[in-house]
Amino acid sequence: MPYLHILRRPSVFRLLTGSWVGRLPSAMAALAVPLALRDAGASYGFVGLAAGTFALSAAVGAPLVGRLIDRRGQTLILLITAVLAAAGFITIALTPDQWALVLLGAAVAGAATPPLEPCLRTLWPGLVPPDDLESAYALDSSAQELVFVAGPLVVAGTVAVVSPAAVLWVQAALGIVGVLVVATAGPSRRWRTEVRSTDWLGPLRERGLVLLLACLAGVGFAIGTLNILVVHYAEQRTFFGGSPGLLALHAAGSLAGVLVYGAVRWKVPLPRRALALALGLLTGYGLLIFLPPPLLMGPLMVLTGLFLAPLLATTFMLVGELAPEGTTTEAFAWLITLFASGTSLGSAVTGGMLQRYTDHWGAACGALGVSVTVLLLFQGRRRLHGRKGTSPGALAADTA
């Protein structure tokens, strides 16, 4: 196994596992909060308001918490956010019929989401040799794919065995357990940034990083369109497993793609590689506009996922190289924020398109989002060379 030697390195398996468990609550929230509120008799209008409050708070809170970690270290901030997020979920579970407390709980749970993804990605350069760093990011990206497969399954299992409200308690417990595993590990406890940024813009003062984040928003927009489109497709056509089955094929393609990607030793510079992967992603979303019959839709969903996780793994490398010293955790947090914001916008736009026009126009939204990413990567490819790890030869090859 090409990843086995990475998993055998000190603390890697513990940190990856703890981070994976601690990320599950975020993947569960989109289902858990609406289910608990509907079970308590809440209207769909209020359910949407609560879910939106959680998502918006998470998007706003991530960079702020990331900046705190860059300045104070990981351990204390991770523990505090885990307790606050758990308190937010428990508040919703205990008072689902009290609107003000539900919104407060959703806001706290979202804003205090423990930034385990940025923290782990900040630790990778100290956990593995430089030659294995890209494979480590690929392994991280594959774990993220499994989070969004396992999260809904945990929700479904808990609802079937106990109740919708119990899912919120499970979320609180998983978040605390995951954070405890990570925060008490040696690399996390010892991590300190050598330089502390005092610029209020933080990592956003680096233009290349801002460009990269905009590219990720375009990819997030495409994913948001897909989340809505598959529901509509499954309603109009018979597909085994319905919309969850379509998304599972997408996740399987993404997982397979990143495992192969991370096992290869690449010599192509990162900006050029990101552009090639984005073009591959655009191919899948371009074909999706035709909305083929179910027999062809399954393989197409695999294709749409095939380039996604490898593209994300490449951007992880680029973020690490582009982020100014002392801002790495915040930079990775901004990545999550821009991606999530793009996803929310993509879902909203696609929903409106499907309501007013044909489903082909709704499918075209995904291709539009990836097209923006491709154009930005092409136009700004010279700005995407990081100062920390790009060799002169690679730079010359890409700017020739």
Provide keyphrases for this structure.
mainly alpha, Growth Hormone, Chain: A, single chain, globular, 2 domains, about 400 residues
Structural write-up:
- The protein has two domains: 1-141 and 155-194, Growth Hormone, Chain: A, CATH 1.20.1250; 201-400, MFS general substrate transporter like domains (Growth Hormone, Chain: A), CATH 1.20.1250.
- The protein is globular.
- Helix 2 (12-39) packs antiparallel against helix 8, helix 3 runs parallel beside helix 5 and helix 4 (75-94) packs antiparallel against helix 8.
- The longest helix is centred in the middle third of the chain and has 30 residues, at 207-236.
- The chain contains 17 helices and no strands.
- By secondary structure, it is an all-alpha fold.
- It is a multi-pass membrane protein.
- This is MFS transporter.
- Keywords: Membrane, Transmembrane, Transmembrane helix.
- It comes from Streptomyces salyersiae.
In CATH, the homologous superfamily of the largest domain goes by the name MFS general substrate transporter like domains
**Beta-strand proportion:** under 5%
Number of domains: 2
The profile of the biggest β sheet is: none
Helix content: over 70%
What is the residue-averaged pLDDT?
87
Q: What's the tally of helices?
A: 17
Q: Assign the structural class, choosing from mainly alpha, mainly beta, alpha/beta, alpha+beta, or little secondary structure.
A: mainly alpha
Extended strand count: 0
Could you state the order of secondary-structure elements as H and E? Answer: HHHHHHHHHHHHHHHHH
- The protein's oligomeric status is single chain
Radius of gyration: 20 Å
In the CATH classification, which architecture of the largest domain applies?
A: Up-down Bundle
